[in-house]
């Protein structure tokens, strides 16, 4: 039977603790893939035909849309997006499909359009300040600029600020 000294037990414990920390920290660097929205089935989408299908058949085939046009129900949209991120970073879209089904006033399918990630607008804000119009006030103007202005409009009972002197007569 082999006996272990306290130092060898402590060394093994520290080694196991270090390996555990490495495994936990490495698992934080994994890629996270998510799917948002409609699950696109190419076979079902291809089965929707203009001039043949109507609202009821599209709903039966594809299900309820992600959203409907704001004015009337002439346009249905099915939105699907796949995202990818690394641990704690911001997610980035990998692929996107927007299926746009257009109907005529009678409810028959007029067109089925597909749009992808190429239609997404990339907005890149510049600078860290939002330009505003108006006067530029310093820190001291912001802090001390209202001294003397508090209550100046409604000072006194005849000014309309107290009970009975308000604009509505109460």
TrEMBL record:
Superkingdom of source: Bacteria
GO molecular function: protein-macromolecule adaptor activity
Record-annotated Outer membrane protein assembly factor BamE domain positions: 37-110
Record's keyword annotation contains Membrane: yes
GO cellular component, one term: Bam protein complex
InterPro entries per UniProt: BamE, BamE-like, BamE_dom
Transmembrane segments: none
GO BP terms: Gram-negative-bacterium-type cell outer membrane assembly; protein insertion into membrane
Pfam families tied to this protein: BamE
Keywords in alphabetical order: Cell outer membrane, Membrane, Signal
Name the UniProt record assigns to this protein: Outer membrane protein assembly factor BamE domain-containing protein
